[in-house]
């Protein structure tokens, strides 16, 4: 059985004790049923891992003592910022989860013309917290020690205006594969549209912002499947796959 990995936003030091927050503590004590003396790995979300051992594992309090520290080793040399059109239900969760597993550096949920989700106020804040939690859980599973930030949702125009990555790709049928010939790319932006696709005007706006069309073959992929395939391609050509 793999050693449990738990995200705790804390300052780690060798010999120091870490009191686990309520959610992780409940998971360790009640779900994993770990007892005193059990080893586990804590990570701070900013790239540092702590090998620790439980010294207290009660229903109301779980404490781990740090035995050693090391830098996380799960980060890709390619920093990809994913702009993902917001989709309903579990589809957005799936896209975020798999993007994190594939080494994405940041994710921005996008409001687009054919998108059928509009969030405001408290509902948007709750959804953003949920999506960030999905990213944390994916890091716990896949071995990353740096948690990618899920940015607050924004309009496509605002996201495009802020892009400065060396390579910028928009999912759209194309015959030009010149992006594959790019050399020494260490950052990329990837734009994925909604189930109904981006409009011609949105694709034109992306191209005006320096985005090249990216096609993923003759079959139409779902909006949550597309980032998995596109990120796999990017990691193969410029990252660590």
From TrEMBL:
NCBIfam families xrefs: PRK11713.1-5, RsmE family RNA methyltransferase
Main EC class the enzyme belongs to: transferase
Catalytic reaction annotation: uridine(1498) in 16S rRNA + S-adenosyl-L-methionine = N(3)-methyluridine(1498) in 16S rRNA + S-adenosyl-L-homocysteine + H(+)
Documented EC number(s): 2.1.1.193
Family: Belongs to the RNA methyltransferase RsmE family.
Record-annotated Ribosomal RNA small subunit methyltransferase E PUA-like domain positions: 25-66
UniProt subcellular location: Cytoplasm
Alphabetical UniProt keywords: Cytoplasm, Methyltransferase, rRNA processing, S-adenosyl-L-methionine, Transferase
Stretches assigned to the Ribosomal RNA small subunit methyltransferase E methyltransferase domain: 75-235
Major site of localization recorded for this protein: cytoplasm
Pfam families linked: Methyltrans_RNA, PUA_4
GO cellular component terms, semicolon-separated: cytoplasm
Protein name according to UniProt: Ribosomal RNA small subunit methyltransferase E
Classification via InterPro entries: Alpha/beta_knot_MTases, PUA-like_sf, RsmE, RsmE_MTase_dom, RsmE_PUA-like, tRNA_m1G_MTases_N
Main function: Specifically methylates the N3 position of the uracil ring of uridine 1498 (m3U1498) in 16S rRNA. Acts on the fully assembled 30S ribosomal subunit.
Superkingdom of this protein's organism: Bacteria
rRNA processing keyword on record: yes
GO MF annotation list: rRNA (uridine-N3-)-methyltransferase activity
Any one Gene Ontology BP term: rRNA base methylation
């Amino acid at each position: 059985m793999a050693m449990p990995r738990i995200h705790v936003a804390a300052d780690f030091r060798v010999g120091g004790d870490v009191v686990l927050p309520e959610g992780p503590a409940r998971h360790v004590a009640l779900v994993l049923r770990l007892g005193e003396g059990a080893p586990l790995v804590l990570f701070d979300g900013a790239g540092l891992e702590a090998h620790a051992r439980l010294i207290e594992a009660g229903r109301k309090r779980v404490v781990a003592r740090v035995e050693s520290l090391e830098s996380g080793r799960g980060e890709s040399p390619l920093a990809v910022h994913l702009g993902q059109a917001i989709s309903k239900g579990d589809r957005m969760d799936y896209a975020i989860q798999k993007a994190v597993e594939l080494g994405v550096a940041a994710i921005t949920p996008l409001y687009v013309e054919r998108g059928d989700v509009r969030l405001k106020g408290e509902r948007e804040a709750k959804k953003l917290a949920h999506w960030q939690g999905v990213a944390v859980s994916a890091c716990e599973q896949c071995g990353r020690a740096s948690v990618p930030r899920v940015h607050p949702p924004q309009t496509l125009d605002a996201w495009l205006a802020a892009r400065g990555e060396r390579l910028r790709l928009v999912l759209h049928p194309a015959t030009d594969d010149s992006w594959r010939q790019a050399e020494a790319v260490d950052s990329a932006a990837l734009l994925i549209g909604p189930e109904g696709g981006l409009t011609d005007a949105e694709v034109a706006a992306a191209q005006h912002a320096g985005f090249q069309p990216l096609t993923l073959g003759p079959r139409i992929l779902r909006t949550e499947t597309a980032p998995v395939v596109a990120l796999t391609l990017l990691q193969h050509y410029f990252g660590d796959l």
